Amino acid sequence: MITGKTSLVGLLGNPVSHSLSPIMHNAAIAEMGIDWCYLAIPCETNNLTCIVKALEHTNCKGLNITIPHKQNIIEACAEITPLSHQVGAVNTLIRNENNKWTGTNTDVDGFLFPLINESFENKAALVIGAGGSSRAVLTGLKTLNLKNITVVNRSSKRLELFLETMAKNSHDENQSFRKIQGLNEKDISVIEHLKNADLIINTTPVGMTSHSKKVDDPFNFPINEEIWNHIKPTAIAYDLIYTPRPTPWLKKCISQGCKAIDGLEMLIQQGAASLRLWSGIDDVPVEIMKNAINDYLSN
Ligand code: NAP
């Protein structure tokens, strides 16, 4: 029951009404017996600093940050963790010893979780998209000892900026970012990189239910539909989006023999990691979070 003693945790973003985070977090909070309530709070960019500072003075125990604030939020934090600095983005605010906000990033661990039992040493990865989530993906890939990473994007300008920022933020003795090559999605050599890739990650919203209304729309495929006829059957296809399940791209990759992973596990694991940080409790009921989301999506 929400009482006068209940504390707030929540999500700041815009829009947030579609978010599954309140569903999974409130299910976990109830199971853990913590007197908290998780709310999705819509927040315009102009009001971000003011809202975050105001929440610092309340009984708010922690916050998640989503689109479009993951980069802007850095300025509103008293400090950020080295990992957030590397990614250049924050998705979680935790209280520091002075009760101020420390920005951290749980998207990297969330992204890596479904890959834990795979080995990618000396293998090749292809990442589609050079936006906010791609930063977390690249930071995670850097830990997998890959032979090379190719990033493919629609806009060359954004790709260039993305690669520059990632290289600048990286304090990496192995210089993993030297192994990264950027290609425009129209570049003819994309197909060769795709044929050699063992792990392919879609970080664009292309194929998401709300992005294109018709399921058989050719624009539901990152890059284009035909190119995926050339994917290695042994490759892993990882889509950060998870509606519909499977996404049109994952469906195609499965038909080519590939193993498919969608973004639901990443969503749940980044949320579980945030909850561990806020509560100080390691044993977060991840299965309860999964069940809550699956129940919600199947209704
Ligand atoms: P973002 O910063 O806006 O970046 C979007 C990227 O997708 C850009 O590289 C953009 O290319 C590309 N793109 C967008 N529309 C495209 C189109 N029609 N054709 C080709 N490329 C297109 O977004 P984000 O924060 O990275 O999020 C991307 C997706 O990942 C979202 O759908 C989000 O829901 C999902 N996500 C999932 C999780 C999870 O936990 N599962 C976590 C984070 C994000 P240009 O540079 O050319 O515009």
Quickly describe the structure.
By secondary structure, the chain is α/β, with parallel strands linked by helices. Helices cover 34% and strands 19% of the residues.
Bound molecules: NADP nicotinamide-adenine-dinucleotide phosphate
| Overall morphology | globular
How many helical elements? 10
Mean pLDDT: 94
Instruction: Give unreliable regions as ranges.
Output: none
Strand order of the largest sheet: 2-1-3-5-6-4
Care to describe what's here?
This protein has helices at about 20-30, 50-55, 80-85, 105-110, 130-140, 155-170, 190-195, 250-255, 265-280, 285-299; strands at about 5-15, 35-40, 60-65, 80, 90-95, 100-105, 125-130, 150-155, 180-185, 200, 235-240, 260. By secondary structure, it is of the alpha/beta class. β7 (about 125-130), α5 and β8 form a beta-alpha-beta unit. The mean pLDDT is about 95. α1 (about 20-30) packs across α10 (about 285-299). The radius of gyration is 19 Å and the shape is globular. It is about 35% helix and about 20% strand. The protein is built from ten helices and twelve strands. Strands 2-1-3-5-6-4 form a six-stranded mixed sheet, sandwiched between helices. Bound molecules: NADP nicotinamide-adenine-dinucleotide phosphate (NAP).
